[in-house]
Amino acid sequence: MDRFQVADDHPVYAISVAAQLAGLHPQTLRQYDRLGLVSPTRVGGRNRLYSGHDIARLREIADLSAEGLSLEGIRRILVLQEEVERLRAQVVEYHREKTSTALVVWRPNRRTQR
User: Fold this and answer.
1) DSSP structure string for 46-64
2) Residue 72 is part of a domain; what is its CATH number?
3) Which pLDDT does position 83 carry in this prediction?
4) What domain range includes position 35?
5) Tell me: the pLDDT tens digits for 43-87?
6) Is the whole-model pTM more than 0.70?
7) Residue pair 19/50 in contact by the 8 Å Cβ criterion
8) How far apart are CA 18 and CA 31, in angstroms?
């Protein structure tokens, strides 16, 4: 990563900048936060900071809303997408373990008889 690039999950954008980048009003971002659709990092207990990942999620929410989905429908879609990603990661891990060439040796504890 270039020294001037910021990681997508690093919170750096104030709400006004995040709203502009996402093409939304700052009040809309506050509402999405209250509903749990996006969870920006809180700084000093009050100020919200958004990451590049948060901006992408806000754009996705805006696109789904423009397609006519309700906020509850959007929330359900986002939850299901997170579940799919978690399951995909599990499948990758399972496949990695299954195709591993590592040798596992198991030796049961043998008690000596007296």
Assistant:
1) TEEEE-HHHHHHHHHHHHH
2) 1.10.1660.10
3) 97
4) 13-98
5) 887 899 999 999 999 999 999 999 999 999 999 999 999 999 999
6) yes
7) no
8) 14
Would 1 be classed as within a structural domain?
no
Residue 62 lies in a domain: yes
- The answer to the question of residue 72 being in a domain is yes
What angle, 0 to 180 degrees and rounded to 10, lies between the N-to-C axes of helices 52-66 and 15-22?
50
Quote the CA–CA distance of 42 and 48 in Å, as a whole number.
5
Q: Identify whether the C-beta of residue 32 lies closer than 8 Å to the C-beta of residue 39.
A: no
User: In 1-114, at which residue ranges do the beta strands (DSSP E only) sit?
Assistant: 13-14, 41-43, 47-50
Domain count, the chain: 1
The CA-CA-CA angle for residues 14, 52, 16, to 5°, reads 25
How far is it, in rounded angstroms, from Cα 22 to Cα 61?
Answer: 10
Residues, the chain: 114
Would residue 8 count as lying in a domain? no
Q: Cβ distance 40 to 2 under 8 Å? A: no
| Alpha carbon distance 52, 1 (integer Å) | 15
